[in-house]
Design a protein that fits this description.
Distance between the termini: 51 Å
Largest sheet: 10 strands, mixed
Shape: globular
Radius of gyration: 24 Å
Number of helices: 18
Number of strands: 26
Oligomer: single chain
Structural class: alpha+beta
Length: 623
Amino acid sequence: MLQPLKYVPYTAKELRPAGWLRRQLEIQAEGLSGHLDEIWPDIRDSRWIGGDKEGWERVPYWLDGFIPLAWLLDRDDLKARAARYIDAILARQKPDGWICPCADEERAQYDVWAAFLIGKVLTVYHDCTADPRIEDAVCGLLRSLDRHVDAHTLFSWGQSRWFECLIPLFWLWERRPEDWMRKFAHKLRLQGVDYRALFSDWQFEKPDEKGRWTYLTHVVNLAMALKAEALYSRITGCGTTVEEANALCRRAIGLLQRDHGMPTGHFTGDECLSGTSPIQGSELCSVVEAMYSCEQLLSVTGDSFWGDLLERLAFNALPAATSPDMWTHQYDQMTNQPQCSRLSPEKTPFRTNSGESHLFGLEPNFGCCTANFSQGWPKFALSVFMRAEDGVAVTAIAPAVLETEVGGVPVRIELETDYPFRDGYRVKVKAERPVEFALYLRAPGFVSGALAGERELVPGEECRIFRRWEGEESIPVSFAMESTLRRRPSGMYVLDRGPLLFSLPVGERWEKREYTRGGVERRFPWCDYELFPTTRWAYAFASREWEPEFGEIGAYPFSPESAGIAMRGKLAGIEWGMEDGLLEECPVGVQNSAPEWKKLIPYGCTSLRMTELPLLSAQKQPI
């Protein structure tokens, strides 16, 4: 038996993005994610659809985001292209249920991580389409995997990501529960990495030596594993309650942020955990997987802590790793990156990645992020509202419209907002006829105060409003936010306000690189770019006082030109070295110009930026 979810996600049939969020999804559809099947051989000519290119994780990764993108935007052209892939995949499913594109004699060596992933993709497609073929296909796939792991114990990525298979397994279990499902879940846990043990007895406070690669400290594995215990705790009698599992999940992210944290709320990893230096990077795959873990944790536990982290990642780390038009992306983003140019192996700060990992392009370093970043915005959009046992919950704050039924009554709930660029939101409820239900309002933990009308909300806690809804009603929610300088392990500081981290934008000169490598063509607009600074970037905070300035949200919400908010305060020029594109980790800090008024903009609106800066009055404080 499965424990019920605290909050049940709605599907793209009920939920639609609006405002700046819809525009962000349109940008994604107009950019790289919306065209990968036309330009990238690993998707266009994949073995998943009968081609001769990659037949493992890249098509499933891409479909995991492309499918909800197509249905959230209600674009028939995108839907048809997604259906073409699903049709081809289902047509190649073997009689015994095996679905991955390898010969029968290759199965023992095939890493079944891709099978877990395609199972999840099929459930996403069913949520969008109610395709009657999917349930049987998922059942056949999972039964084949159940038999497979008896003879071929999990290894490699499948062993590290065993819990991802619980997502399609639980989806099926809720539709047609059978005894074998519980046993299969138990086998997966026994054969997989024990993340409960890993985070209970944490041994990875420091980065591994440079060049050393491990599955246990791999940043994407750990971003995915944040939800592992909570997922497994849904099984009745498994020995861990949902509350106990949630406590362990919170311990896990606390350890990762303490020892390897970035000011965005994420943690470093290029590929593996890399400490707290502002010039260490983190992989884009790990950002979207951490977001997905937060979304799952919100659903399983109802803990608004995960809503806070989800918003912080979505508004900072996710948009910062793509160009504003989303035609290019970085593999690794850095807190401080005043230049993104090719680095020699001797100069690179990355522990296991190449000196091209921070370039903006089609496939910097590895192509996993090229496919996987597609899930970030669509799944975030699907997390704005979730179904509660007695009503509807606002679980992430962004503009969206929900059209559903509550108690058999058609209800429309709209969340109007320019948050995070503004300080609040408005919920509009329209019921076709009178109906009683609860509406749960979100008050993030990082605001200093919140009001729903005249009712005071507690930051970090959900507010339940149970009433009889009739006709049209509107509830305004306003936040009080304070700007704070937060000290980092380097001894430097960052500027926060609400969910947003702020950076000094550095003027950008984009130098295009068009070429072919390994049979993959890079040409405009999906070519590579090196970015060089055109404005001064070596500054320190000269004051703790910063004030917001609000502006219009432009056509590209996360761009330097369209930032809907800026923070105004004083910076002073300092000495800070950069050689051959590699920034000095911590500056000498000697002031060499008088304080001047400057504007910082949201971290997510920058490509070149300086975020972690010294505070002149605090330079001599011990770290």
